[in-house]
Amino acid sequence: MPQVAVQINGKTYRMACDEGQEAHLLDLAQRFDKTIHQLKGSFGEIGDQRLTVMAGVMVTDELVALQHKITGLESELAKLRVGTSADRENQIAAALNKTAERIEAMNAQLKNGGDE
Questions:
Q1: Which pLDDT score is estimated for 114?
Q2: Are 26 and 49 a contacting pair, CB within 8 Å?
Q3: Contact 39, 58 (CB under 8 A)
Q4: Is 64 exposed, middle or buried (0-12, 13-18, 19+ CB in 10 A)?
Q5: What is the spatial distance between Cα 63 and Cα 55, in angstroms, rounded to a whole number?
Q6: Are residues 63 and 57 in contact, defined by beta-carbon separation less than 8 angstroms?
Q7: Which of 40, 86, 98, 114 has the highest CB neighbour number within 10 Å of its CB?
Q8: What is the pLDDT of residue 63?
Q9: What is the pLDDT of residue 49?
Q10: How many Cα atoms occupy the beta-carbon half-sphere of 71 within 13 Å?
């Protein structure tokens, strides 16, 4: 299992990851480090543990907000799919009605000896 050295808040941590996930882990660590630095800029030196907890809560808040957004988008997509299906059914029904009218008209012509 590969190991990656990541830097967060000026400290190096060795972390294991799955094969091929090294770059992804480095990117995640850089994003988290950026959050830490933003908090440091806002609150100053407040202690590593408190800073890490605050950053973790902020990242979790963003995650929850994105999950809610995804759920909403999935709901909208499901409604669109249902609407599309209903539209198709209406179009098919209209085409069938039109075809039935043409058949009835042809049937009437045949009964009248094709005079119409």
A1: 58
A2: no
A3: yes
A4: exposed
A5: 12
A6: no
A7: 40
A8: 95
A9: 93
A10: 6
Looking up tokens 């990656």 gives 4
Q: Which parts of the chain sit beneath pLDDT 50?
A: none
Amino acid identity, position 34: K
Give dist(CA 12, CA 27) in Å, integer: 14
Please, what's the largest Cα pairwise distance for the chain?
A: 99
**First CA to last CA distance, the chain:** 84
Q: Which of 14, 53, 24, 22 is nearest to 36 (CA)?
A: 53
How much is the pLDDT for 89? 85
How many CB atoms lie under 10 A from the CB of residue 36?
20
pLDDT score recorded for residue 13: 97
Structure tokens that stand for 61 in this block: 């808040």
